[in-house]
Amino acid sequence: MLDANIRKILMEVRDQAASEGIQATLALHHEKSHLMRVGNSSISLNTSEDLTRLDIEVTDGRKQASQTFLGMIEGTETIRNVLDKAVEKAKAAAPKTYDPIPDEVEESVQEETQYDEALANLDPGVKADAYREIFSKLGANYNYSGSWSSGSVEVYMITTANKNEVYHRGTDQLFTVVLKHPGKKWELINTQTGWRASDFSVEKTVKELGRLIPVYEENNGYKVESGEYTVIFGSDAVSEIINFSVFTGFMGRGWEEKQNWTSQNKPGDEVLGKNITLSDDPFNSQTFMFGFDMCGRKRKHFPLIENGVLMNLMYDSSTAARYGREPTGHDTRSMGIVMNTGDGFECPLEAVRDMGRVLYIPALHYMNLPSRSKGIFTGSSRFNALLIEDGKMVSPIFSTRITDSFQNVLGNVSVISSVPESVNGSNTYGRRMPVAVSVPSYIVAEGVKITDSADSF
Amino acid sequence: MTDSTAVKKEISKNISRISLDGAGYVDARYYLNDSSETILLYDGDLEANDTTVESGIGVRVLWGGAWGFAATSDLSSLRECFDKALLNAKTASKLVKVPLFMGDRDPITGSYSSPVALDPFTVSLEDKLGFLTRLDADLVDDFVLKRIVYANFQKKKIYFQNSDGSEINKDLVNVFGMMMVMALDSDGEMQRRSMSLYSTGDGTSGWKMITEPVLFAEHSSRIKLELKGLIEADALEFGRKSVILLPGQGHLQVHETIGHPLELDRILGYELSYAGGSFVNLDSFGKLRYGSDKLSASSYGGIQNSPGSFGYDDDGTPERDYLLIDRGILVNALTSRAMVNEANEKSGREVFSQSGGVARATAFYRAPIDRMTNVNILPGDDGSLEDIISSTEEGIVVDNPVSWSIGSNREHFHFGCEIAWEVKNGEKTRILRNPTYQGHTLEFYNSLSSVGDKSTWRVELVDNCGKGEPNQVMQIGHGVPVLKFDDVIIGERK
């Protein structure tokens, strides 16, 4: 846990800065991260990092600068030194053509509802034992790889605008195992996520993979020809599509600057299918909940799409300042995007029983946007992808590329699962900052464009 | 403990201690300073004026064939950091089917400094902003809707020591620059044209590089002109034609479909749960026809003024220059010590004679993994860009990526580019917008029909290659000439 003394000296430096008329935001980010990586059925890397970052942003009229420090914080002097550097850089900066909106912690917040001591201090030996058990139960003849990241994050922020403080402490984990057939080359994956140690169970993984192994063992791979297909997208794929569509459709900056696929629309226009409802919900417990943003604003339930209609756009502080809008609490790396569930069967196979031949694509690998303005995305299937006929798993499919638009895919959804699923979208580039979306466990979309496929696994 | 001499002595003591305990290998990377400065002008407004300063130590211990790693910025707890890495390795060794080993190596004492004529961190912010603001002003025009000018400066001072007895000091400086203009086309779609700072692979470096007009600033009027052409252009139609890649696009093609699939850790399956695998296997070396006779690719850690040049990797291996693909045949991979040992043992033969020196970590708090150095295509003998165009009946010339999406084993790909020029009967004709092309890696490289000469070759700098868990962003360079591929799928089916 963040040393109480560090918070105290940060507040002291804040008080000094405020008394000197400096306008600053001071934040600490502390992570205790652990990651176990598995390759060739062995633990290939077992890492621990305990890191504290200090971020200081200074605003001097229309001039701004930020300074981040990751090193030994030896006392007030270290923090003051980082502040002084930021002040100096702000002085030398070129003024903006607009007035920045000052950061201000609206209300003191202390949130720890998603903190689990057991996960924060999870013994790496538990992870090793779990992997061993999975290998043993699923078969030692396969080649296993994977990773299991877990840890805790603390964020503490104050500003010179007032003495309010926000503090967040949470834990998160993301478990992955990949099972590869050594000869036939096909790969299966299972992931688990959550904020409690008890969110993980070996049995879940064994059950999920155990269900798929026979289909892969007993059938050859199928090459999907280019054309239009009915596709069941699993939760990981839904999460990718939703995330990309949100960031390129509903962020205020892209919309103001006519780069979004929604730029020719306005709030009130129907942009997706009537059965699609999306929001940013910091209170949804299937996401990693952050009740404030990094400008000190309280985050609230924020409708984005209701029954296909564009409701709101998300404005970070600098975009709002630049375009004369109100910031909406979106200066955050951890949004809680939620897609509402529908009334589809729990099992996707039941949902497509009368649909003949359909593709099941649970995840999209390496998605990207050839045209952001048109909402065109491309990505390919990878693990666990199947050809389904009359609701039955027929054979695995080779890596298959989809190149289509958000409007087409999310405009032609015929079934939405009634079961919500949490999909962990955290990455660990730089600092630990967990993020997850809550999406239906699957959707069925009609007329999805398949544009290429591999010739083998 | 902030005295760096004392820290180095402590490192030495701890490496000896952990080695005597029975560790197979121990190393420590002490980052005395890892600084990064980012400046971003957005329509002339200074939107990013950010500096990051990091320092700390990362310790790696190999025990019982498994790696343990720990990192801290608290140098008063060095001993605890070594103990944590050891404990992590011991835990990891509980589940080892394929033991990793580093092999014996004679100790190396060395140092490497990036060639720097003027350290960018000694240039004042006012001077930096003065240069970038002038560049931004050059991008202004009536039809230009958005302008971006970006610069990033990096400086790392690293001390490395390992249980081989090696001691290496590195002073690395990287400079990146990018400018972009955007405007709406007749369909209301945003088009863009950009230019990134590149290197010729020689000369001086540091701040002088970004201010060298030919490498960066003098391209501002060209990209504006090309953007004007783009917003009035027709869209590229679906078809199969020759595709000529300028280095601005060719480097990413090489990065994604030669660099990544030839990283040995991917080939051995260590990246399956994240970045993916490779269609290449250990039997492919010396046999697989990766491309046509015109394709020769190298890994060269010694190109001057490239972020893919660093003197010694994080296993303590000196930089190397070697062929990956020799006239179309796959001959080597991007390798590190433990991966070479594992591959040779697995194959029962010497597939790789030595490490390629590619073990790198992005920061003190990350463990080294296999990262490409400068993966290059050697210049060919098909002349200049104009020569290649004149020998093309029907095709397109493309530049700069907009999007890239690669199959998990790097077996297929889809690229979107900023701009295309139509080529008909040996002439470059009109500009086309929204160009895309796709293909399957081996089929694509086997259709390589022209490789530009040295005059077309340049080193493109990459500052955002992501890989590994925990994730790591790495900086590298790619020296590539103009490349022509035949019978490629371009555009999208209706």
Name some characteristics of this structure.
heterodimer, A: 457 residues, alpha+beta, PmbA/TldD fold, 2 domains, nine-stranded mixed beta sheet, 10 helices, 22 strands, B: 494 residues, seven-stranded mixed beta sheet, five-stranded mixed β-barrel, 24 strands, globular
How would you describe what is shown here?
The complex is a heterodimer of chains A (457) and B (494). Chain A has helices spanning 4-19, 76-92, 117-120, 124-138, 202-218, 235-249, 252-256, 317-323, 348-351, 406-409; strands at 23-39, 42-60, 63-70, 109-111, 143-159, 165-180, 187-194, 227-234, 278-280, 302-306, 309-310, 337-339, 357-361, 365-371, 376-380, 386-389, 392-396, 400-405, 413-416, 420-424, 436-440, 442-453. By secondary structure, chain A is α+β, with helices and mostly antiparallel strands. Chain A has two domains: 4-128 and 150-176, PmbA/TldD superfamily (PmbA/TldD fold, 2-Layer Sandwich), CATH 3.30.2290; 227-453, no CATH class. Chain B is an alpha+beta fold. The model of chain B has no long low-confidence stretch (mean pLDDT 96). Chain B is globular, with a radius of gyration of 24 Å. Chain B has ten helices and 24 strands. The termini of chain B are far apart. Chain B has helices spanning 4-20, 78-92, 125-139, 207-210, 220-231, 247-259, 264-267, 337-347, 385-390, 441-446; strands spanning 25-42, 45-63, 66-72, 109-113, 146-162, 167-184, 190-196, 198-199, 234-235, 239-245, 297-300, 321-326, 329-330, 359-360, 369-370, 375-377, 394-406, 412-424, 427-433, 436-440, 448-451, 458-467, 472-480, 483-490. In chain B, helix 1 runs parallel beside helix 2. Chain B folds into two domains: 4-232, PmbA/TldD superfamily (PmbA/TldD fold, 2-Layer Sandwich); 235-490, no CATH class. At the A-B interface, strand 1, strand 2, strand 3, helix 2 and helix 4 of A face strand 2, strand 3, helix 2, helix 3 and strand 17 of B.
